[in-house]
Amino acid sequence: MSTTTRVERPSPTGTWAPCCWTSPTPSRPRFLGKTTATQGATHSSFVTRGGTLLVETHETEAGLPVYYDISRPSQPRQLATFSVEGFENDTMHDPKVRDNTTFFSWYSLGVVAAHSANPSHPRLRAQFVPDTDLLR
Length: 136
Prior knowledge:
Blueprint: E1 3-10, E2 16-23, E3 30-34, E4 44-47, E5 53-57, E6 66-69, E7 77-81, E8 92-98, E9 101-106, E10 110-115, E11 123-128
């Protein structure tokens, strides 16, 4: 039985980006493809339950989340980026997708929820910014 696993690890070219692997034998995975990180190395990513949508984040200043169609793992296709007001002075990470909502954690912009039923056009659904920063 063959299984397809999508995990973040160094690709054969040595760069960190979400990669798609498949393997009937987990000890010998076969590389299928990877995204092209245009904002530097990928910090974190999330693959939806159906395995066809990837959300990739870059923990760099003004880094934006990127939505990819990975229904063809050898040829990931960028669908969209998503931004909120103030992203230029912040960084974000750790996307999570639940149903038609993508959740992001921005450092000073708080938790952001994006409506992503149409991942080619994600839009702001909600944002929560705490009154205080417990780390300061």
